[in-house]
Amino acid sequence: MGTTQLETVPEPKYWHLRTVLSEALDSEFSVGEILPNERDLAARFGVARATLRQALEQLELEGRLQRRRGVGTTVAPPRMGVSVGTAQHVWPGGPHDAWQTLDCALQVPPAAVAETLVTGRDEPVHIVRRSRVSHGQPVAAELLYIPADSVRDLSGIDAPSGAARARAVLRELQRLELERQENTVELGSARADDARELDRLPGAPVLVVTTRFIARGRTAALSVATYRADTCRLTFGDSGGVEIHHGPERHAS
Predict the structure, then answer these.
(1) How far apart are CA 234 and CA 216, in angstroms?
(2) 3-state secondary structure of 85
(3) Which residues have CB under 8 Å from 149's CB, separation 6+?
(4) Do 116 and 222 touch, CB atoms closer than 8 A?
(5) CA distance linking residue 81 with residue 89, whole number of Å
């Protein structure tokens, strides 16, 4: 049997430009800075605007650039490492929790959530809404579903909704002894609500991290966190928590 020789494929022009642009981002621009318009960039590097767009789109996929509505193309902040499968188990809302608590409402959850929580389909649960910000830009949105049985004593708070109500729910949740937590990760598309909160277009790629918090042998809370896929990357191991990665690691995919 003969051996097939693969022909050397020349590097596409847009890919070479992507490398040149990446180096320019490191040396000439800072996080959040707006890039010159496409016409000026194409003239600077001596390429067609179609080639430039391909290179910019590739850098956006890699998380180096962000295209923001009404602003233009900006240099993206370092990617956020989402730590999955760690040995450190903590309730949300603890002292080192970087999420911002926004709101809380007592509502009937989606059917799939009710099934996971083993609550009745028409039984309302506490839904805490939180967000995660990096360099002033939203990178993740979370819905935390908590059955009433997990937070029985809320007599000290009269607010029916809002951030104060949410913090009270999280404080009461932390009274339970957390046995373990289970994480699952999948690639998804931003729904209209998530896209608006994350400053993305509907349908943009996102990472959906679902966490079951187990206490008393059952699911005491369920977190569905939606991360921007262009600014986040997954890390595995026992490092714990969510870390912001700076320097050369920002290029990781």
Answers:
(1) 29
(2) coil
(3) none
(4) yes
(5) 17
Q: Is the pLDDT of residue 129 over 60?
A: yes
Q: Which amino acid is at 45?
A: F
Mean pLDDT computed over 229-236 = 76
Q: Residue 101 — φ and ψ, nearest 5°?
A: -80, 125
Query: In sequence order, what are the beta bridge partners of 109?
Result: none
H runs (alpha helix) in the chain? 13-28, 38-45, 49-61, 111-117, 163-173, 192-197
Owner of token pair 């496409």? 38
pLDDT band at 90 (very low <50, low <70, confident <90, very high): confident
Q: How confident is the model at residue 237 (pLDDT cuts 50, 70, 90)?
A: low
Distance CA 96, CA 55 (A): 39
- Cα 64 to Cα 41: distance, rounded to the nearest angstrom: 16
pTM flag (> 0.85): no
pLDDT at 243: 45
Cα dihedral 184, 68, 61, 235, rounded to 10, equals -40
Q: How confident is the model at residue 127 (pLDDT cuts 50, 70, 90)?
A: very high
The DSSP symbol for 9 reads P
Structure-token match 């730590």, residue found: 83
Contacts of 86 (CB under 8 A, 6+ apart): 237, 238, 239, 240, 241
Q: Are 103 and 129 contacting, i.e. CB atoms less than 8 angstroms apart?
A: yes
